[in-house]
Amino acid sequence: MPDQAIHPTRAELHSYGLGQLSPDKATAIEMHIRECEPCCETIANLSSNDTFVELLQEAEQLPADQIGDHEGVPIKPSSSSEDIPVPLAEHPRYEIVGLIGRGGMGNVYEARHRKMERTVALKVINREFVRKTEAVDRFHREAKTAAQLSHPNIVTAYDADNAGDYHFMVMEYVDGVDLSRIIKDRGALPVTEACKYIRQAATGLHYAYEQGMVHRDIKPHNLMVTADGTVKILDFGLASLAPEVVSDANAGEVLGELTTAGTVMGTPDYISPEQAEDARQADVRSDIYSLGATLYHLLSGRPPFDDGSVTQKLNSHAQVEPERLESLRDDIPVELSTIVTRMMAKDPEERFQTPAEVAAALESLLQAIEPPQKPSPHQIRPVRKRRRLLLLAAVVTLFIAALVAGVMQFFQMDIGTIRGTGKVVAIGPGTSQRAVELWISGDDGLLVQEGDDVRLHFEGWPAMRSDGAFGGEVMSVDLTDDTAGIFRILIKADGKESWPDPRYLRPGVRANCWIFTRSR
Amino acid sequence: MSSLAIHNRSMNETSLSLLNCLRRSPESESWTRLVELYAPLIRTWLYKYEVQESDAEDLVQEVLLAVSKDLAKFEHKGQPGAFRGWLKAILINRLRDFWRTRDRRREARSESDIDQRLADLANPTSELSRLWDGEHDRYVLRQLLNLVKPHFAANTWMAFYRVALKGERPRDVAAEMQISLNAVVTAKSRVLRRLRQEAEGLVESSSGFFVEG
């Protein structure tokens, strides 16, 4: 019988709890705690943190087949508790609905904000990326920066949070499919479809670039396509975590590092030569390269350098010209092939210098391939083939109160969506009707008609519902031969609340604009 | 019967570890275990060194054969991580041989690249070595978890799993599983102890923890 009067020391209880004791000692304590509740409690309350247990936890998280890149493997939503780390499942703010994807950086869960009842996606960063305090700090810093981005072509990040040592990004829940899945299912895409996707991605990238952010991991897997064909870039602000793993090693061994981190960074099918050499060199032109490689993949059905090992691929990015697209399929316009070549130039100086240039080039190509249908008579203006940007002026009156109902209604109709981005030029005149004039570089401006509904989102304007949009109606459209368009927006100010604060709505502020064209 | 069940709860329990088992019985059963434990890890690293899938299986066999042949000669000397370092050296040798005989064409491109990275892996203080160590431990433990699991009652394993691996509170687990707190605490301790025994000599942090006295 154990002697209840002689309790084991705290250290012994601790060691027992961690399975560190020799068999004799362990047996003795086992017998003791069968009778002695306080000692049993002590063990139960001791933290089980030790390196061996941590290693076991990490080991347990290795994928079942142990090898390979699970990126892009879609998973049916499941709420089996084994998939959800406990601290996450118990998060006070978010209720996990199920696992919706796995990626190199971590798993993605669908979740519901308990109070707001808003559906969000949680990207839980693999713990190995954020083990060091500085990595945790950087993650939260980057997430904060990413949360500043608000653009229809970027998956909105709301917040960064953690559950115990699980750090995660709270993001807009996007009901869509990523491009890697689309090409896997369908193979090479039609020319116009591929161009439209990449043009949208370029628009999003340019917006982020203007906010001082580069992506650094552009690839099909990070481009989501929603049901209405909108492309949204995923994972802004996350790529900076990956090089952390890599950057400690000796410079000069970069290929080795990348290879080593192959599971971390995904296959380097889209990485620019300069980024492969030194991740710190990556600027927006590296993103342009990766976007070019992505476009190549969409058009040819395979990455630019498909064969060989990681190192071979990296060497090819640095030294080999990919096979010309024209030789892979016969419906590639020379102009398109030239655009891809320029996006993927080895020397960043020879590429398009900004994503906006890429978007413009693709836009003018699209115009040439499929000129927009002649719009109704009062918009009349011959389409000039080489026109890069369309000038259009629209006057829009926004009735704030009608916003939600209006938007909902239009979603139910058969509509097309036209997007543009612009800058506020002037505000005024009058008090009952306030007007906002926007320069807008949009697309398909010829399709815009009077009466079309418009949604606007001003940069930095705190979100109203999830996207901070408010809307109205196009009063008139004027197209000229100039190279940019102008929107003139009239906003009816119902109350102080609905009028954007002058901090957000002032000359020079950028706005995103969606125009809902009725089916025609 | 690819289990670890060779050792019953005997007087000699602390000295039983997977490593010792492997060394003591270099016959077929031991071979199976070696393959189960190490093939995934080695395969992963062969891929990192650009061995194509078609060659990888042969090379995995070669490495493991070399391990099994020399296991008896391997001396642990009580250094933490000695085994994985030894295994790494065998892997490096095999990879060097492989590339030397296989590939003359490599000269066209960065031939020295693989050599350089192999040299890097051979250097025990390099980043690559650190990565090897970490992956080695995780892969081995992953396999050990699978191997040890059948030796415990389902309830015992579940209690261990939830408390130790999933970080749940023992009290909650006890309540939900409708077992006593004592049962939960005991389950965790027993399974952890077993895992430590099996891992001893293979995984760094498992050894040298015993509090005696």
From TrEMBL, chain A:
Gene3D superfamilies: Phosphorylase Kinase, domain 1 (3.30.200.20), Transferase(Phosphotransferase) domain 1 (1.10.510.10). The chain crosses the membrane at residues 389-411. CDD domains: STKc_PknB_like. The keyword Lipoprotein does not apply. Keywords: ATP-binding, Kinase, Membrane, Nucleotide-binding, Transferase, Transmembrane, Transmembrane helix. PROSITE patterns: PROTEIN_KINASE_ATP, PROTEIN_KINASE_DOM, PROTEIN_KINASE_ST. ATP binds at residue 132. Residues 94-366 form the Protein kinase domain. It holds the Pfam family Pkinase. This is Protein kinase. It comes from Aporhodopirellula aestuarii. The lineage of its organism: Bacteria, Pseudomonadati, Planctomycetota, Planctomycetia, Pirellulales.
